[in-house]
Amino acid sequence: MDLGSKIKNIRYNHNLSQEELAKKLEINRNYLSRIETNKSLPTAEILSKLAHSFNISIDNLLGINLDGHDGADIRKEKIKKINQYCISLSNKDLDFVLKMLCVMTNNSKK
Question: Distances from the Cα of 12 to the Cαs of 15, 21, 68, 75, in angstroms?
């Protein structure tokens, strides 16, 4: 999700109008509108105020992964965890999981 959409979602989730959030961030409502539509980028100061006001990290807002893992490592760990859960499933349950994965990946093959 892009930065503007994340900021818009934060605003919606806190039931704030653009005017209310703009006032909280001490910026012009039109500027906030441009940020939410990705026509302008927020300054570091605005990101800091947003993060502080809503108790979220700036790296989360920017989609930066600071834990040292790249996407491939995280993906491998998730697949490993799925495998661990599946080991104890019955064949019937495994068939169900397989069908769900096929639907989720738009793959009709088993």
Answer: 5, 10, 31, 30
Alpha-carbon gap, residue 88 to 71, rounded angstroms:
27
Q: Which CATH architecture has domain 3-62?
A: Orthogonal Bundle (1.10)
Question: Is it the case that residue 99 has pLDDT exceeding 50?
Answer: yes
DSSP secondary structure letters along 13-65 = HTT--HHHHHHHHTS-HHHHHHHHTTSSPPPHHHHHHHHHHHT--HHHHHT--
| pTM of the predicted structure, to 2 decimals | 0.59
**pLDDT tens sequence across 21-56:** 999 999 999 999 999 999 999 998 999 999 999 988
